[in-house]
């Protein structure tokens, strides 16, 4: 097993209009205006926080920012199509659906507009210039390794009852987190040290649609009622902090002792749950780290220089291998929660 790799640690335009077949391209006549378009989901509070932070940092660097939040895949596709018409210097996309931009981004490629995928890779297009994210492999590894250590599985302890939850199916990161965690835990299922009484062990079984935490509530209720009415559910793999919060609410409502449970994102509410002994740990993807790195990447591509890259092999999107910069996340539990700031 590889060692643990996670450490505690309004746009102003002068417009000219060019008619091209049925499409209208709005040309920014002021070539010196540093315009950046950001198209993010509006599906979770963390995306709103990340978007606002990125916009603030860019404006401090004298960029003009066109910020768009989308509730649906269709709205985000329309938003991206719209910002391309204005020909910004760079487009940053946090994809709702990583596979939804195959045709949408072709005009950006034709216009030589750099596109940066933020936190989620974009598939099946050569229009993506760079990817800025966290080390997603290490997040999945870290979850698995934390459970392994907390339960003393290497020493043969068990059996422990465990149930699994995963993120949204359209997010490639969710698959990485789950698969890497399961690679570590699978031997303990095979040995009988971990027991999944529901038998729901695949990603398809475990995924929470759209990462919407309320979509996890009916399933955890059913699991507790059907499989653990007379037994203890010792461990729950939760793919993020919001879903962990819903799961823990249902444990409390059922009068069940809290399980050893994971989280992700470093939500301030998760920090408080950790302090109160409810949530066991979270993996913090500090938005300050990722947004600062993304700003440096944007500045480089706008200035025509090469941004810092530390991965050129992992993220094959089906057409190209996208050069990436992967930031390092941190495990937060009761041993260090008071050392981190609320994000």
Descriptive overview:
The structure is a single chain. With 343 residues, the chain is of the alpha/beta class. 36% of the residues lie in helices and 18% in strands. It is built from 10 helices and 14 strands. The protein has helices at 45-60, 73-85, 106-110, 136-150, 172-191, 203-206, 217-227, 241-253, 268-275, 287-303; strands spanning 15-20, 23-28, 35-41, 64-70, 90-93, 115-118, 130-134, 160-164, 194-195, 235-237, 260-261, 281-284, 324-327, 330-333. The protein has a 6-stranded parallel β-sheet with strand order 4-3-5-6-7-13, sandwiched between helices. It has a 4-stranded parallel β-sheet with strand order 9-8-10-11. It has a two-stranded antiparallel sheet with strand order 1-2. Strand 1 and strand 2 form a beta hairpin. Helix 1 (45-60) packs across helix 10, helix 4 (136-150) runs parallel beside helix 5 (172-191) and helix 7 (217-227) crosses helix 8. The longest helix is centred in the middle third of the chain and has 20 residues, at 172-191. The radius of gyration is 22 Å and the shape is elongated. The relative contact order is 0.14. The model is unreliable at 1-30 (pLDDT under 50).
Blueprint (SSEs and pairs):
Elements: E1 15-20, E2 23-28, E3 35-41, H1 45-60, E4 64-70, H2 73-85, E5 90-93, H3 106-110, E6 115-118, E7 130-134, H4 136-150, E8 160-164, H5 172-191, E9 194-195, H6 203-206, H7 217-227, E10 235-237, H8 241-253, E11 260-261, H9 268-275, E12 281-284, H10 287-303, E13 324-327, E14 330-333
Parallel strand pairs: 3-4, 3-5, 5-6, 6-7, 7-13, 8-9, 8-10, 10-11
Antiparallel strand pairs: 1-2, 12-14
Helix pairs in contact: 1-10, 4-5, 7-8
């Amino acid at each position: 097993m590889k060692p643990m790799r996670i450490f505690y640690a309004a746009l102003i335009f002068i417009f000219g209009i060019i008619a091209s077949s049925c499409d209208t391209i709005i040309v920014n006549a002021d070539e010196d205006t540093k315009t950046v378009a950001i198209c993010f989901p509006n599906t979770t509070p963390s995306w709103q926080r990340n978007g606002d932070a990125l916009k603030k940092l860019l404006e401090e660097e004298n960029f003009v920012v066109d910020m768009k939040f989308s509730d649906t895949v269709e709205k985000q596709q329309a938003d991206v199509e719209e910002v391309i018409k204005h020909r910004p210097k760079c487009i940053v996309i946090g994809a709702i659906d990583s596979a939804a931009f195959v045709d949408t981004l072709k005009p950006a490629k034709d216009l030589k507009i750099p596109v940066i995928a933020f936190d989620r890779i974009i598939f099946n297009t050569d229009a993506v210039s760079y990817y800025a994210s966290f080390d997603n492999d290490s997040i999945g590894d870290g979850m698995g390794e934390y459970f392994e250590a907390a339960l003393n599985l290497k020493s043969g302890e068990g059996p422990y009852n465990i149930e699994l939850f995963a993120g949204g199916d359209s997010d490639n990161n969710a698959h990485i987190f789950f698969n890497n965690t399961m690679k570590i835990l699978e031997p303990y299922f095979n040995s009988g040290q971990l027991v999944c009484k529901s038998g729901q062990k695949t990603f398809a079984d475990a995924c929470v649609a759209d990462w919407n935490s309320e979509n996890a509530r009916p399933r955890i209720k059913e699991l507790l009622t059907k499989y653990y009415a007379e037994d203890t559910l010792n461990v729950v793999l939760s793919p993020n902090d919001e879903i962990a919060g819903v799961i823990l609410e249902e444990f409390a409502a059922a009068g069940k002792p809290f399980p050893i449970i994971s989280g992700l994102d470093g939500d301030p509410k998760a920090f408080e749950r950790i302090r109160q002994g409810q949530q066991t740990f979270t993996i913090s993807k500090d938005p300050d780290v990722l947004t600062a790195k993304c700003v440096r990447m944007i500045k480089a591509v706008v200035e025509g220089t090469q941004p810092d890259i530390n991965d050129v092999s992992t993220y094959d999107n089906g057409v190209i291998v996208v050069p990436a910069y992967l930031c390092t996340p941190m495990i937060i539990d009761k041993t260090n929660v008071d050392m981190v700031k609320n994000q």
